[in-house]
Give the backbone structure.
Amino acid sequence: MFLLFLAFISLVVLLSKPQPVSPTLVFNKPKINLDFSILDSEQFAKLESFTKLETQFAYEAVDDKGKILSGLISAVSQDEAKKLLENMRLVVTTIKEVEIGRVNPFTPYFQVEPPPVVVPPTTTTRR
């Protein structure tokens, strides 16, 4: 009985004609006011241009005690990074730009390791 009712409702829905919709398009123009007076302000006149981006460099260097140090330093160029390290009284042995990104983008940043399985000691009884 229920299946017959369900079949009847399905036929009514599938065979009915859709209601006509008016083809008028409505465009609501956004109300945006742009204030360009900021370009004439004193704050805008004092802005400095932003042309040089710093990149990271991996380095190995030797300090004045002979200890080998390694790390990362941010600078505009490799020569600038070398100068910064020399100002820190380090003798640079190697320096290279750090590549941005990952070799395989599909590897997760972290992996959840399952906890180690602890096997309880078995007790043996001798007879």
Observations:
- Residues 75 and 81 are 5 Å apart (CA to CA).
- The chain has a mean pLDDT of 85.
- Residues 55-97 form one domain.
- Helices lie at 2-15, 42-45, 78-87.
